[in-house]
Amino acid sequence: MNVPDRAVPQQTSLHAAPTPAARTAAFFDLDKTIIAKSSTLVFSKPFYDQGLLNARAVLKSGCAELIFLLSGAKHDPLDRMRTHMANMCTGWDVAQVRSIVNERLHDIVAPLVFTEAADLIAAHKRSGRDVVVVSASGEDIVEPIARTLGATHAMATRLVVEKGRYTGEVAFHCYGERKVQAIRELAARESYRLEHCYGYSDSITDLPMLEAVGHPSVVNPGRGLRKEAAERGWPALTFSRPVFDR
């Protein structure tokens, strides 16, 4: 049983890595930064096919995707939708969810990965940096995606589980300031010097994360984040090409 812990995040190491004297990392938001859509909502159809969602819930998920795309992941609509999604999965079998995600990862998520993001991740790895995916989506979706991308660590929202099923409660919401908390704890454990680390996000809600690293960049930013980036002299990157368009 996972006991709700609203203060302490968990991190998942995806690959073993050597420990050099001075280590740095590149922190990437996931949705609309590495992939073109919401990592949670793209699994609505396979969850429906496996009997986890009904037609009404799928329709609501589709509406949520539209809100996500139009809002630029602004705080209130997306936060409310994540709470709704957590409640909606109450009683779901965790093993079944993980199986669906792993089985459908290649055909659902891989086509949504931005080529520019994949190339940037590869460049950071060649430079000897760890790559960390930090997402407000659920860990059972984020971790397999991060592993496929070759990330070193994944940090994500953690749901409470009892007897192998989700209770609908959120143990740790990896969002806003809590993303920064998770990053700082990981940096302390892995000896990253954050002033030499990199950060990438599309969302104004990740402003605290971008402020926490020495080399922040915004990706496909909305108006608010673009304005912040211009005022602070941060690079603004445009990611548009899916990997399968190469």
Automatic annotation (TrEMBL):
Pfam families for the chain: HAD
GO-annotated molecular function: hydrolase activity; metal ion binding
Keyword Hydrolase: yes
Keyword check for Hydrolase: yes
InterPro entries reported in the protein's UniProt record: HAD-like_SerB, HAD-like_sf, HAD_hydro_SerB1, HAD_sf
Superkingdom of the organism of origin: Bacteria
Alphabetized CDD domains for the sequence: HAD_PGPPase
Keywords recorded for this protein, A-Z: Hydrolase, Magnesium, Metal-binding
PANTHER family: PHOSPHATASE RV3661-RELATED, PHOSPHOSERINE PHOSPHATASE
Family of this protein: Belongs to the HAD-like hydrolase superfamily. SerB family.
The protein's name in its UniProt record: HAD-IB family hydrolase
Provenance organism: Mycobacterium helveticum
Taxonomic lineage of the native organism: Bacteria, Bacillati, Actinomycetota, Actinomycetes, Mycobacteriales
